[in-house]
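Long-time lurker. I teach an intro course on protein structure, and each term I like to show students one example going from raw sequence to a predicted 3D structure in C-alpha cell notation. This year I'd like something fresh instead of my usual example. Would anyone be willing to generate the C-alpha cells for the chain below so I can use it in lecture? Attribution to the forum is fine with me.
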Amino acid sequence: MQGWKLIAMNAKFFLIAFSYLAGQSFGFEPTRSVIVVRPKAWSVSIQEWANYRKSEYEIIEVDSIESPYDLRQKVLNAVRTAKHPTTAVLLCGDVANAKKTQLGNLVLEPITPTFEIPTRVKLGPYVTPTLATDSFYGDLDDDECPDLSVGRLPAKDPKDLARMLRRSLDYEQSSSMGPWRDRIHATAGVGGFGMVADTAIETVTRRLFSEGIPDRFQLQMTFASLSSPYCPPPQELSQTLIRELNEGGLFWVYIGHGNVNCLDDMIVGDSEFPICTSEQVPQIQIPHGQPIAVMLACFTGAFDAKVDCFAEMLLAKNDGPIAVIAGSRVTMPYGMSQIATEMMDGCFVDKIETIGEILLKANRNVWNQGAQVKSSEGSESEAGSTEKRLRDRQKGLMEGMALALSPEGHSLVEERREHVRLMNLLGDPLLRIRQPKEITLRGGDQFSAGQVVTVAGDSPLAGTLSVELALTRDRLPTGIKSIERYENSESVRDAMRTNYDTASDLVLWKTEKKIASGSFSVDLPLPSDIRGKYVIRVFVYGDQDWATGSQRIKILKSKAP
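-- Reply from a regular --
Happy to contribute to a lecture. Here you go:
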C-alpha cells in the first residue's frame, strides 16, 4: 500500500514538474515587459488586469510622482532592470483631479503627469504656445522618436481605473460575432478651406479609405457637407451619426474640426447643426463592437484640460468607444493623414496585434518617413522606404495637397513630427485587435454581365455563410439625386436621406446559408445591366470566431447570343 502511495506521490511530482517545464518550453512564461505607472495606493486596481496579462508580460509597477521628467527617469530605470524587453508603458490616472476645497475653490490634485512642451509648428492663426504629450515616456534614447507604445487610462480614482481595465478584458474576451466586426465608421466635417479645396479633400479622403481599408469592410461614411451624397439632412446629422455608431464597428474615424468637449458644427446659412456635442455623448450606446475612436481633429484629446475632453467623455462610458487616439492641441490635415495612413497599413497589411504597437509603428514611420518630401521652401527630407507602392501613392496625393495649401516656408517634415507628439492614445496599449480567419476564394476575376458565377472556397469553421456582390468603394451606386441648391424643405430633406442611404449601400446581391467547415460553393447570378469593377465578399460567422474572404472582379458587357 505504501508503495502505491509513493508511486502516486512521484507521479504527482512528475506532473507538476512537467507542467512547469512545459510552461517554460511552450511560452507560458512572459517574454515581454510592460511598465505600469499608477499612484501607489491604486495598485490593487490593476491586479485583475495584471493577472490576465502576466502569461505574456512581466508587469513592472512604478509609483507616479508629480514631475513628469523625474517620472520618466523612473520609467527608464524600470526598463533597464526588466527581465524581458519592454514593449509598452501604461499610464494610469488622469493628469490631475479637480476637487473643491472647503472654501469652494477648485484645485487640481496631481495624479499621473504628462509633458507640456513648446509648440514647434505654427500653421494658421489658431496656435497654442504649448502642447501635451505622453510620447516622451516611450522615448528611450532622447531623440524624441518613441521607442515604446504608450497609452493612458485617464481615471479619476482607483474604482474608475478598475472599470477601464475591466473593459479591456471584456473587449478581448468577447465572443460576440456579427457584421459589426467588419464595419468601420468614417465621419468628416467641412475643412473650411473653400469649395474647391474641401471637395479635393473629400475626394482624397474617399480614395484613402477606399484603397487603404480591405474590401471585407463595410465603410459607413457621414460627411457634414451639403455637396456630398454622404450628408444626411443637417437637422438629422448628429442623430444619424449616433444611430450608425450604435451598430458597432472596429474603428470610428473622425476627420474635421473639433474642440475640447465637442466635434465641429455644420453651418448652413445662419444655422449651426452639431456633429456631436458633450450633451449628446450619453446617447452613444454601443452594446457590442465598441470601436476604437480615431479623432483626427484639434483639441478633442486635450486630456490635460481642466475639464474632461471629448475623448475622456467617450471613455467614461461603459458602452462607448474602447480606446481613443486624439490630438491634444491644434492638428493639421497633412500630419494627421500621414499617421492615419500608417495606422491603416499597420492594422490591415502588417496585422499588428495591439493598438499600442499599431500607433507606435505609425509614429516611428511618420517621424522617419522619407518619401523625398519637399517643403514649400524646396528643401527635402531623407528618402525612406518605397516598398509599398499603394501607400506611397496615397502619401504623394496628401503631400501634393499639403504643399498647395501650406504657406511658403512651411516644413512638412516638422508638421509630421509635431503630430507624433500631438496624437496620444487614451486606452490600454496592450489592447488586442482581433483578426478574422482567412477564406481564399477560387475562380476567375473577369466575367460577363448576366453570367452565373460560382463562388467557391474553403471555410475554416462552421457557421452562417454570407456571400455578397458589391461595388468597390470608389464608385457610387445609381440613384443619387442631384440637389442643385439646398433649401429647408421636406422634398430636399427626403432627397438627402435617399442619397445618404443609397450612397452607403454598395451591396447589389446577397445570400446567406448555414454551412459546415470545409468546401462551399454558391451560385451568384450577375445582373445583366452592370459593368465595371465590383467585389465579391464572403463572411462566415461561427459561435466563437469568424472568417472572411474577398475578390475584386471586372464585369464586361454581355456578349450577344
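Some talking points for your students: Residues 1-27, 371-387 have pLDDT under 50 and may be disordered. Residues 179-426 form a domain with the Rossmann fold fold (CATH 3.40.50).
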